[in-house]
Amino acid sequence: MARDKTQENIAIRGEAVRQRVIDAAERLLRSGKADFSMRDLAAEAGVSFATPFNHFGSKGAIMHALSERRTDTMAIRFAETRLPTDAASRVMLAVDTAVAVMLEEPGVNRAVMSGIGTTGGSAGHAWVRSTALWTLALGAGEGIPENYRTHALDCLPRQLALCFRGALSFWSAGELPDEALGPEARAVATTLLLGFTDRSVLFV
């Protein structure tokens, strides 16, 4: 029992250090230092030079962690909102929530998106986490006809994740201005939902 408690305490301390490093990376990005080095990061976090490597392995993994933090924020805010009763309206609300999170700090979030797009062999969990958000939004598929509801719930979360990431990629590259991100993301989601839901719900 004592050994289990010790391991639990070590894990808690480790997670605290991990979050401290991620917080420091965000501060560096806010100050315009998207090209920060791991040495810069360690200094900002007030930890040893080896600590970011020990917890993440590479700068690419840190950028993925920043991306995952944003997706988690989207899911939390969405879940805390009063949700519509039909799946299509919930998806639109999820789009608006996700866009709002990204536009809160556009400079930082563009840097994060650019960072995870150029991390080479560093793999993250962005698609899995984003898929979970759209799965949450679709819920039990209320409003989707029963004869193809199962298919919709199986394929739409992954496709919505792919398309939203595509919109973010063009946005982070500067091809999509801030004011166009929301409308374009909604248009993509609407296009995907057209084959599964009542058009009167989508075009309001």
Short description:
This protein is an all-alpha fold.
Helix-strand sequence: HHHHHHHHHH
Percent of residues in helices comes to: over 70%
Residue fraction in strands: under 5%
The coarse overall form would be elongated
Alpha plus pi helix count: 10
What distinguishing features does this structure have?
about 200 residues; mainly alpha; Arc Repressor Mutant, subunit A; about 0% strand
Structure explained in plain terms:
The protein folds into two domains: 1-57, Arc Repressor Mutant, subunit A, CATH 1.10.10; 59-202. The longest helix is centred in the first third of the chain and has 29 residues, at 2-30. The chain has 204 residues and is mainly α. Residues 5-11 have low confidence and may be disordered. It has ten helices and no strands. 32% of the residues are buried.
Describe the secondary-structure layout.
Layout: H1 2-30, H2 38-45, H3 50-56, H4 59-79, H5 87-104, H6 106-117, H7 126-138, H8 149-172, H9 178-193, H10 199-202
Helix pairs in contact: 1-2, 1-3, 1-4, 4-5, 4-6, 4-7, 5-7, 5-9, 6-8, 7-8, 8-9
